[in-house]
Amino acid sequence: MKTYLAIAAIVAAAFLWPRPADPLPGFPHVFLWAWERPENLTFLDPHAAGIAFLARTVCLRGGAVAVRPRLQPLRYPPGAVLMAVVRVEPRDSVLPPVDAVSAAISEAAAIPGVRALQVDFDATLSQRRFYRDLLGDLRRRVPPATPLSMTALTSWCQSDSWMAGLPVAEAVPMLFRMGPGERPARAFRPSLCQSSAGVSVDESLREPPSAARLYIFNPRPWTASTYQAALREVRKWH
Amino acid sequence: MALRILIVLLILAVPLELPGCGPFLPEALFHLTASPEAPDEFARGQLGILRPSYERLYLAIAYRYLIGVGLNDAERQAALPPPQPPLDAPAPTATPNPWLAARNQTPGIQPLNELDPYRQVKKEGYFDTYLNCSDDAFRTAAATLARIRRTGDAADWIVAQDMVFADCSQGAQIPQPTSDARLAADRAYQIASAKFYSEQYDAARRDFQTIAAAGPSPWRGIAPYLAARCLIRAGKLAEAESALEQIAADPALARWHAPANGLLGYVEARLHPAARMHELALALVRPDSQATIGQDLIDYCRLFDQNVKPQPDDDLTAWIRSFQAGGDGAIEKWRASHTLPWLVAALAASSPRDTAAAELLTAAAAVKPDSPGCLTVNYQRVRLLPPDDARSLAGQILAGNLPTAARNQFRAERMRLASDFDEFLRYAPRRPVAELTDEVQPLDTTEDYLDHDARDALNLDLPLSYLKQAAASSLLPDHVRQELQRVIFVRTLLLSDAPPFDQVFTLLQKPGMEPYIDAGYGRNTKDVQEIDPYRDNWWCSASATNAFYRQLPPKPGVPGAPFLSAADRQLVAAQAEKLRSVATGPDWLAAQTLAFADRHPQDPRVPKALYLAVRTTRYGCTDAQTGDFSKRAFDLLHRRYPHSPWAAKTPYWFK
Predict the structure, then answer these.
(1) What chain B residue is nearest to A69 in terms of C-alpha separation?
(2) CA distance A235 to chain B (A)
(3) Which residue in A89, B6, B388, B511 has the fewest CB atoms around it within 10 Å?
(4) Phi/psi at B245 (nearest 5 deg)?
(5) ipTM of the complex
(6) Which chain B residue shows the shortest CA-CA distance from A189?
(7) What is the dotted CATH code of the domain comprising A28-237?
(8) Which chain A residues are Cβ-neighbours of B549 within 8 angstroms?
């Protein structure tokens, strides 16, 4: 009897545990990722989806920082919620001072109309300390009202604990372009990874993600029809 | 019991997959499809075997050689893009901004460390950034500073120039006119430049026009050109075209003819793309085009990518389009022109049964050995000639010096033409020319491997008896023979009606053994007894849901062993069918183990075999049945041998 009670308690806890509050309150629950290519998103309904656009790439090489701004046009409708994405690319093992990188990233938060900042960085094991310090410095530089988001390898959200305590509102596990034979998980344990997930229009998921906010990647330029199709798919999940 | 249920719940709660990017395991490439293996040699006319899948940049260069124009040294340097440094290359020496370097040496001037040349477009509903201040601007400023220093105090001019370059990234700082007559002309230029960089294009244009019309000024010559640039920046392309044409026609502005013509090309590509593409196509086949060929190739390929049709049509564009589209209309073009490019395209489009093959082969035989198209033409001849003639020609060519990629491709054709198994084996090994991980890198190696054609023939078209011959043949590299011996072991077992358990037991302990041979480097984990972390363990059936890409069961294609007898073909068909029906590795191994355990419960190997069978279901290639096999092996191990060390090492079963 005790056994059944224990199982019942575990199952009940799993279902009844309160979901964490939305770390990006007031932001749309769908974001289209707009990567470095001409993108015309004027068809987008600002109430239905926001735009997380690659604003700049920060290259780290030989201990120096080089910034490459977005050089492709992005068109969006009035009222669209904009999140600036900054891609960080370490080109060798000599990392620059954290504050230099952080300063280069933070400038994207000052782009007119930008309401949040997302950092995209494939930190290796040896770079995690740097990345942690970087996000800490960035949080201090960027206005408190500007939420910080970060993309995450799914392994960081599954079998790793290094992200615990990072000063970001959310970590977005990318459930696409996985290794061969690997299946994305539906949900993740770390609270940072629970609210959002990244999916791609060209990869079907075996199970819909449980995250309330989805970032959608498209390997090709967005069109009204791919946008509508993506929204239809997402609405089936939620 | 409660603990077990809790463990199962925890297992279900924690996903077992190992996600992440990649993996980018190295893959051997025996020739490249998008570009030549040695672009520098290619640009010297060593075209190798020309492939329709090459980037158009290379096809345009090839066309020049095929029509006899080629590239001189300066053209070659201008035409080829500089090689990209590998991602892990050491940092290049930073090139300092020449303006900052010159400015910061001036006494009394507060040093500036950086200058942002990019400016964001300010427009509602629009985000974009563009390079506002180019390197030329900084070089010109540095040179001007040197001139001004020679005549007096430069501090005032530097302060004004700082305002000009501050506009590169944002704002609209405009210097004030100066009362110093010596600096008046330079200040007028600074004011116009500041308006230009702060996007006040109409005002900047008026200022540049005033400078052009005024008295002596060091900026008088460049001013009309900059006035035209204002029109381009303002999007007034038709007016810009007219202004640039006037500059290009004015003998007094000869110094600015080349830059004006460059901008004119930029404008015309946007105003009249079809006509501009035609102009570019004609320019690209002219000799001594070193001054323009680099930019022309970029512009031409860009218009091609935008699917612009040149007006009127031209031979270069028609040839590239036909060659890339599988030779569409190439035979008619060749008949009309009898030129080498069209012969190459027509040969590539033909098959041995085509009526045009004979006339094309006659023309191909007349191509001289020193022609840049010789290897391509001879490769197509080997493909089209009757087998005996093709073998003879391939033999002659392979006896000579060849680039490695071309040699690999001739060896592939020669293997296809093999008249016996020894010939097949002789031409099966190839040498990689590059390696693919997350990018393609050139490779210099003396090791030979199998390419996909030899792999497919060995896997699908040859009976077991031939594989045994191959494994004993010195014509294959040692590592291939060793892999073949393992393949033979596994195949023999799988084809057997009663697989001996001692061999099943061996196989359980060697996850690197499989019934199919790999191309290239094969399994990433070389020790066959080691579990591969990317699940490249044992083999997959077609029903497997998590097949590693190297493990996908081969699919029948064009038979690759024409020398087989009818009896051998029947035999290989039967063996292939039986192999295709074999369950995925973990299921087959677990089934054999469970059956043996039922028959021989006292065999001392059984507990370990059951442990190994459960392990295959974790690390192997699984399907819908695997979980059932895993549980059955797990249950039997724990029920019948609960105190064995193998039961202790098997705490879970796997779905």
Answers:
(1) B129
(2) 25
(3) B388
(4) -65, -40
(5) 0.83
(6) B14
(7) 3.20.20.80
(8) 180
